[in-house]
Amino acid sequence: MGVKAETLLKIIQSLEKKYGIPQKQSIKIPIVDQIIIHFLSQQEKQENVEKAYQAILKEFVDWNEIRVSHHREIQQVLQPFLKYQIHEKSLKIKDALQQIFTIYNKLELETLWEKDFSEIQKLSQQVSGLGQEFLLKFICYLYFQEDSPLASSFFRIGKRLNLWDENSNQTLLKKNFIKELGPERFAHLKILLFIHGETQCLAKSYDCSQCPLSKICDRAQRDPSIQEENEDEINETKSKRKKEDLAKKTKKIPPTKNATEAIAKKQCKEKNKK
Ligand code: SF4
Q: Are 131 and 167 in contact (CB under 8 A)?
């Protein structure tokens, strides 16, 4: 099923207003290294994280040596570069490497690039301290690689929009999207739909009245109550949104930050319901 650039761009633009414009990373970083960088990054400046990461690479032969080292040795290497919770970070790195080794029996996970996306989701759930935050960072990185597998949320939302579904041929779909959008915009589409699928258009619950895609979504169009509610919402917030949109046009926002906030809001809402 061929989907036209005009429709795809409408989806991208609507979601960018909500989640920000995805940012491309310039170099390919192996999966285990990304996990280590994730632990080093907490509360630290980017430049210090980079120095700490390089120091680890220089001081240890490989990740296995770090796994079997005492955590104080890791701490000593990180000490000159990091400011916060260095002891905890050393422990987390050692623990994460041990968990990866226990699950995969190796510390080299590059074959996951070729597997189904659910494998990466599983990894982020199994290694403690990774979770949703790592997954969102990783997704931005992953989806700028052309061969990245498509997530189930990509098909779920496509089906609700009535544009594509899980029965569509992945190879043909990718070809169609790259032809219509080019590789970079296609990466934006994948990232934004993933974030949308994890925060708003969930598998079991979704709030169409707050969704920026409701006007073009087949599922929302088929339920008039959603549309009415959405029209009211749009009228009420029209002027507010105009101002926000204008501000956003001038700056690029990392999608992970907006998406993390969206997840936090969602969890808060669910808690209040209980
Ligand atoms: S309108 Fe509803 S079903 Fe359609 S994409 Fe948005 S949340 Fe999902």
A: no
